[in-house]
Amino acid sequence: MPWSKNDYPASLKNLDPSVRNKAIEIANALLRENYSDERAIAIATAQAHEYVNGKSESRPHYEVKPREDEWIFRKTGSDHVLFKEDTKSALLEKAKKYVNENEGILNVFHADGSHDKTLYE
To answer: In the beta sheet, which residues pair with residue 66?
Structure first.
């Protein structure tokens, strides 16, 4: 189903409006090429960030990972913890908003410390 500036997937709601609008445009083109909704959203989000903000190498990188009995959010390579929560899902809500506001890239890890996924590439 095609999306518009007023009707789009919830996963795009925290994006900067210029990135979101470009992602909607790209996602709709991918849907016309018979991509699944989920795949179209993922590709469109990444390409829209790159289109609006430039290549990912110049953008800040952040990470959500486990530490002892809590989850922490920090800039990659830093010891300074920006946020911490008891659960991964609670922390991801805060982290996603922060990363989008700072036009960054978010690396998410599993409880065992292995890499889970990268968001907003």
So the answer is: 71
Q: Which residues of 8-27 are buried (b: 16+ CB within 10 A; e: fewer)?
A: bbeebebbeeebbbbbbebb
Within 10 angstroms of residue 64's Cβ, the number of other Cβ atoms is 23
Tens-place pLDDT, residues 75-85 = 999 999 999 99
Q: Judging by DSSP bridges, how do beta strands 70-75 and 81-85 pair with one another?
A: antiparallel
Local confidence band at 1 (pLDDT 50, 70, 90 cut-offs): low
Query: What residues form DSSP beta bridges with 83?
Result: 73
Cβ(10)–Cβ(26) below 8 Å = no
CA proximity to 65, closest of 76, 57, 56: 76
- Residue 9 makes CB contacts below 8 A (sequence gap 6+) with 3, 27, 37, 41
